[in-house]
Sequence to fold (744 residues):
Amino acid sequence: MHRAIARRWAPLLLTAATACSDQAPATNADASSTSTAASGSTGTGGTSTGTGNADSSGGSSGTTGDDGPADDALQRYCGDDHAAIEARIDEWLAQLSVADKVAMMHGTGLLPDGGTWHVLGNDALGIPGLHMLDGPRGVSEVASVPATAFPVGMARGATWDPALEREVGAAIAREIRSVGADVLLAPTMNLLRHPRWGRAQETYGEDTHHVGEMAVAFIEGVQSEHVIATAKHFAANSIEDTRFDVDVSLDERSLHEVFLPHFRRAVQQADVGAVMSAYNSVNGLHCDVNPPLLRDILGDEWDFVGFVMSDWVEGTHGSVEAVRAGLDVEMPSGAHFASLPDAVAGGQIAEAEIDESLRGILRAQLCFALDTDPPVVDPDARLTEDHLALAEEVARRSVVLVRNEGLLPLDRTSLGEIAVVGPLADVENLGDDGSSQVDTAGVVTVLEGLVDRAGPVTVTHVPGDSIGAEQAAAITAADAVVLVVGLDADDEGEGLIAAGDRESLALPADQLQLIHDVAALGRPTVVVLEGGGPILVSDWMAEVDAIAIAWYPGVRGGYGIADVLFGDAEPSGRLPASVPFAEADLPPFDNVSLAVDYGYLHGYRWLDAMGTPAALPLGFGLSYSTVRYDAIGLEPTTAGAGETVTVTVTVTNTGARPVRETVQLYVEMPGATLPRAPRDLRAFAQIDLAPGERGVVPLQLAVDSLAGRDPERHAWVLEPGVVQLKVGSSAAQLDLIAQLTISP
Ligand code: BGC
Fold:
């Protein structure tokens, strides 16, 4: 058995094997009595006051016999051929037996078949089936082939560059097609509700707008190669240790305004092909048997016309009730769904309901042309020079410089020797050992990158995890120190099996000691910090000259980091999540109990509401230059539902080096009847400026994105009134203000 799967699923294999009998295991959900149990999710959206959200007219895959999906949703998903495709599906459905149909609604087993997880098609009718593979940072190691390991999602989130992320999506799609896969199990797009979440590295950050921008771009990139992307995990999957069992309570506003908008954009803006339900429960129902989430919101309200698959092994909790809730595909086997033919025969579910589910699966196969242009195995399409160069560019662009007291960029003309220290200096540290793990080749460590880029500077590796006399002598002999510390797969991640959440936001104690000991030697020191999310820095920050956060930087990470440290690239990464002064500044992270309440506020929205400054705020990052925010313009200054306003921001590079600035727009609605967080990110864009250059950045703001969800009416409400638009370089540095009047 494949090593990674064995490791991840070993404790569950017995259960899975047992469950493979036709006997459906007990479930904790009974759809007929629970379809309205999830609080705040029963709305139809029909009374929306104009936010641009989908109306309630459409059905979806998994719905039980209404009018079917809206034409515009089908047009977006399938293009002009959509009517012909529906007709073809009708013909197929008329020819297939119930057993044939159900065989196309679940995986073929725990183990991948030929390197991918397979969902059967039908040879007689020429239905191709599905071939699935993770994942978020490249071709999963399950495929057993070397592939490009991109920087993790959180690193890519730190680029704040959707256009670059679109390229990453397309590159990963080309690589997974080259192993015969047509469904990519990515992006992971759950919010980083708390930075101790063990899978922090897979997602893009803490804010719904930012995560939405990046995920939409990734999905567009993937699907441009006609690979089906999978928005996962739907929804509120932000705790690892209790992921199978935890019930997340979310009131209607928190669900719709905070934890779902990025998924809605994946569906409505990027037309994502597939959605994966999360392991956890939301409001008392596991996500795969959760009619409010899958049927009412995803299907009816958003008009999703693709298919919903379960998460693996422990992710399905029923057969009839799951299909009725809106689950279309059980993965990785038919542990539950194999009993569906009997359920049809016994009258527990109608064949029409099976057809409705299967329709979404078949539609995806046809609309993504899996029948006419299937993936072709091609080893030459992986680890290409283009993909490696892209991984390197993303690594460069993801480095977030959060402190620089004049040491950086390292000056090749004045530094004779630099010492490279720390447990992560010369190791391959690309992320966790879970489903996002990639087998790669040619990894460039930080040490190797520095050696390659050093020119005349001597680079001395000082091995060891602590400072003895030998290390101290080597360090004091150097002119500057690069100290590489942080987390690795032993500290966080899905691979740790029910223990993947971080124990603390701090660095491990031995690394804190190492920083103190190195700093005490008095050489100019830059700390390179690796890891999947925010790490506390305030206790030791003042002891060192510079800090560069480099995340898990991918196969060519060493080059990217060295380029930034030597100043061959300008640092342009910005924090995708707030770094607090102390963990106590954030809402509690409860990865032990089986019931948690997420609430409306987390991250910068929580810190702002509490009046607690972040040590390093969302969106923050230094450059080697300085930028002045000169002026803000707004056109028009009054607008209503369905309209978009343009905010123009004039900025000047006031320093001596080029700069890439990320201009951020936050909205404040202090008078709203539905009380908001103090401020919410709603737009951002980047601009490159030469020294002394002035430029104008246009930011588009959709007025509908200012709507709130009325829990009484289960509808979006755009309140007339004045909204403050604040612009600046981070959530805590917003110097330009404009006022937008929302018209009734
Ligand atoms: C993970 C998913 C992944 C799946 C298949 C699950 O454990 O939660 O993200 O896609 O395994 O590897």
Q: What stands out?
A: The CA atoms of residues 395 and 560 lie 5 Å apart. Residues 389-610 form a domain with the Rossmann fold fold (CATH 3.40.50.1700). The two ends are 62 Å apart (CA to CA). The chain has three domains: 75-379, 389-610, 627-742.
